[in-house]
Amino acid sequence: MFLFLTVVQAIVAAALVGVILMQRSEGGGLGVGGSPSGMLSARGAADFLTRSTKWLAILFVVLSIGLAAVAVETTGGDAIESTLDRTVAPAAPADPLGPATTDQPAATGQEAPANPDPLATPAE
Fold first, then answer.
1. How many angstroms separate the CA atoms of 124 and 1, rounded?
2. How many helices (H) and strands (E) does the chain have?
3. Nearest-5° Cα angle at 37, 32 to 42
4. Which DSSP symbol is given to 76?
5. Element (H or E) spanning 36, and its range?
6. Angle at which helices 2-22 and 42-75 pack, to 10 degrees?
7. CB 24 within 8 A of CB 31
8. One-character DSSP codes across 84-105
9. What are phi and psi of 115, to 5 degrees?
10. Where is the composition biased (Low complexity) (predicted)?
11. What is the CA radius of gyration of the chain?
């Protein structure tokens, strides 16, 4: 159902783009010359393109709302919440006064390394 509505939505969108691009910016619609009355006159073409644009836009909005409703119904709200991993223990807060990290020598009387940068040449 979702795939079918998506394909229909794409077809309606392409038709809407085509109909809009056929219209003249002044509202002349295709700019077809000829008799002032009739379906294929400039006025008749403009009316046809205006009406078809209106109905295609309405259909596009209705399909968008329908696709949104189907997508919410398909995925559901529980699917997102159930994927959370709740077994991970929370991280311990950092204690600035606690034991030293590996970057610093511990306060047990050990000396700091003479050359902490492994890429630097040893000092003589």
1. 77
2. 3, 0
3. 20
4. -
5. none
6. 160
7. yes
8. S---SPPPPPP-TTSS--TTS-
9. -130, 95
10. 89-100
11. 35
Number of neighbours of residue 46 by Cβ within 10 angstroms: 19
Residue 30 pLDDT more than 80? no
Tens-digit pLDDT profile for residues 38-85: 555 666 677 888 899 999 999 999 999 999 999 888 765 555 555 666
For 123, the token pair is: 């000092």
Task: Show the CA angle centred on residue 122, arms to residues 117 and 123, nearest 5°.
Answer: 110
34 torsion bin: left (phi>0), alpha (psi -120 to 50), beta (else): left
Q: Do you know the residue count of the chain?
A: 124
Determine the Cα–Cα distance for residues 63 and 56; give it in Å rounded to an integer: 10
Task: Tell me the C-alpha distance between 52 and 35, whole Å.
Answer: 22
